Amino acid sequence: MPNILNSNTDSSVKVSSDASPWYSASPWQQYHRPFVRDLAFALACPDALKQWQSPEPNLVSPPIFVHPSSFWQQQFQRYAPRLQQLDTGNSYQDLTRYLMSRPSPYRLGFHFEGLIHFWLEDGYQLGLHPYEVLAHNVQLYNGMQTTGELDFILCNHDTGEVEHWELAIKFYLGSAPYDFGNWVGINSRDTLERKLTHMQSKPFRSVWIDLDGYHKLKIDRRYVVLKGRFFQPSHQQFTRPDWLSDDFPLHTWYKLHHQYDWHSLLERNTLDDKALRPAHYIEWLTYRPFYDASYLTTRPLPLDPWLDKEELRQRRHRLAHWPYVPLTFAELTTNLYIQQAQ
């Protein structure tokens, strides 16, 4: 996996892996097709939480559980032959159509949900796991007002229990003292504390759900599925929180206030400013080599003449300014940066 840098004019984030041997191997990188790589990441990445721990002790809800890392490793290994088939055969079209037909397929949260949904449906039909989707995106109401929704209602045919899974894909920067409120997304209001509090106070409080207006179903177990990438600061001593899974990888972010900091970072980490490029949104999940300058140089991308003039102009402009190198301190913005393959 390439080195990754996320930065803005005041601070930057450099991603470096600190993970278990299983995760460090980045098993999703063996696949060539981008959505297959994303699907492999969605399965192989362990949960961020070691166990459920409420950020608000006074909140009351039914018990909430977290799948151990071994669960996701096992699911990935069982599904690996199917991933290989999707990566090499025409069935990839089924995955692509499925993901692109969903609402807002270009938003990472919806994309992650679509990946898990495809695996649940496809894997159950192939007999690779016992989870049957009974319902998804179940609306919650208070009278006539919608108050939220439940991501997945599943029947675990191994146990006979009805399970409720809530999903989240998150990218948080951590700072001391590393409590839930100290893990913050690009939107400063998006914190791990706020996300977990919302889950516990809204969807996870449901005990009975109304599936079709007359059929009520009792939820037996509740699982949070929280994955993504967390970043620890380079300028502060880091103590791993007791709630954070030992198998969940941590990356590192750096502060850059001056030109000197930028050059020092490049020297310390043997980064090449001529190879760094802005990442596309989807690369927060997995790396896309076809966005590299070398790929565009050797395989020029044709522009569809049927596009409208404004879209053609914008695409020509982006290609003309590729690969945005060498990257300078003044050009850093709030984005993810990837070191291109040499």
Textual characterization of the structure:
This protein is α+β, with helices and mostly antiparallel strands. It has helices at 21-24, 34-44, 69-88, 92-100, 108-125, 192-201, 259-268, 293-298, 309-320, and strands at residues 4-7, 11-15, 131-142, 145-156, 161-174, 183-184, 208-210, 216-218, 221-233, 250-255, 276-278, 335-339. It folds into two domains: 1-17 and 249-342, no CATH class; 19-246, no CATH class. 29% of the residues lie in helices and 24% in strands. The strands form two sheets. Strands 1, 2, 3, 4, 5, 6, 9, 10, 11 and 12 form a ten-stranded mixed sheet that branches. A two-stranded antiparallel sheet has the order 7-8. Helix 2 runs antiparallel to helix 3 and helix 2 (34-44) crosses helix 5 (108-125). The longest helix is centred in the first third of the chain and has 20 residues, at 69-88.
